[in-house]
Design a protein that fits this description.
The chain is mainly alpha-helical and 167 residues long. It contains 2 helices and no strands.
Length: 167
């Protein structure tokens, strides 16, 4: 027979061999193969499920990260605002203290100037009194060299004293 048409005996044994191999594979091979395929499918499904969960967790982490970043920015803004307020308060306090210290120093200087002024006025009055007494003494010596003039001056002074005591 030819290559294209097999013998009926060969065909018979090929069918029987095929049937035995098919039976053995169906009984022992296919269940193992199917179980391996199903295990592989379950593994792939679990991997896909885990990947989805990981993506969801990643999205949640991203959202949480953005929230934390927003909170950090708010906290930074609050801290900077508090720092600016503290700085302004410290500057204001320092200005007020400097102003008060300046006023206190001005008052002390005014008091010191007033004291020195009074001291200078007393000193000038004392010097004027000394000079006046000295000048009056010289004038009276020249003027009272004569006894008549001395008597007239004494009478004039007595009259003035009497008039002032009556008032």
């Amino acid at each position: 027979m030819g290559l294209l048409t097999p013998d009926p005996g060969l065909l018979f044994w090929m069918i029987i061999t095929f049937g035995v191999v098919f039976f053995i594979l169906a009984k022992y091979g296919f269940p193992v193969i199917l179980k391996t395929v199903e295990d592989r499918k379950a593994y792939i499904d679990n991997s896909l499920k885990a990947a989805r969960e990981a993506n969801e967790q990643l999205a949640n982490v991203k959202v949480e990260g953005e929230k934390i970043l927003a909170q950090a920015r708010e906290e930074q803004h609050r801290i900077l605002s508090e720092a600016a307020a503290t700085r302004d308060r410290i500057i204001k306090d320092a200005q007020e203290k400097a102003f008060a210290e300046g006023n206190r120093l001005m008052e002390e200087m005014k008091k010191q100037i007033e004291t020195e002024k009074e001291s200078a006025i007393r000193d000038i009055r004392r010097q004027v009194a000394v000079l006046s007494v000295g000048i009056a003494e010289k004038i009276l010596r020249n003027k009272l060299a004569d006894e008549k003039e001395q008597a007239a001056l004494i009478d004039c002074l007595l009259d003035e004293m009497i008039e002032t005591s009556k008032k």
